[in-house]
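INFO batch 0412 | record 1 of 1 | parsing
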Amino acid sequence: MQERRSNRLRTILISVIIVSILAIIGTIIYNALKSSKLTIVVTPIDSEISINSEKRNNGTYSMFPGEVTVKVERGGLDAKELKVKLKPNETTVVHVYLTKNGKFDYYEGSKADYSLLKLIGDEKVEDYLKEMEKKVSIKEVLPLSKYSSSTKPSPTNGMLSRETLIKDGTDDEQCGRVICLILIDNTGDTKVAESLLAAHGYNLSDYKIIRK
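INFO prediction complete | emitting tokens
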């Protein structure tokens, strides 16, 4: 009786070992077949990403060779779906950016996503970044100021004069954008500010203006 029980336990133990070995071998073979790698970089960074309907994040994944469907969505922006062919033993890098009707306005209000956008090699992105870098380059000529006569007394010194001052306001708590300008003008008029910027090749309308 005792010997029969020992034989049964031995049989169960051997079966468990065989099953475990087969599972390990199966895992090794399965991982070996997943010889392709897909690196995906998506902006905005909080977009919903799916690969073959499976939710993913920015990163690198081991995949089976063949075609996969990548879908990227985010509220307020146009979704994108693309087919990607993965080759055995190769890494495929996919950059996806979302816009609204082809416009990049969203990125001017998100410093993090604007920085991530710089990693994406795309002709349209490069053109947009050139435009933005031109706007950001205004920091090199700031501050700008002009002191001129006025028919109103200045609220600061009581003199019949006015001062227009334009400063970098990007770090101001009211900004929240890639670039902002602080405008100090005791007349409430923007014409002087517009002429100051125009003299250096910039447009006041291109910036979020913080009045002080």
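INFO post-check: The longest helix spans residues 2-33.
INFO record closed
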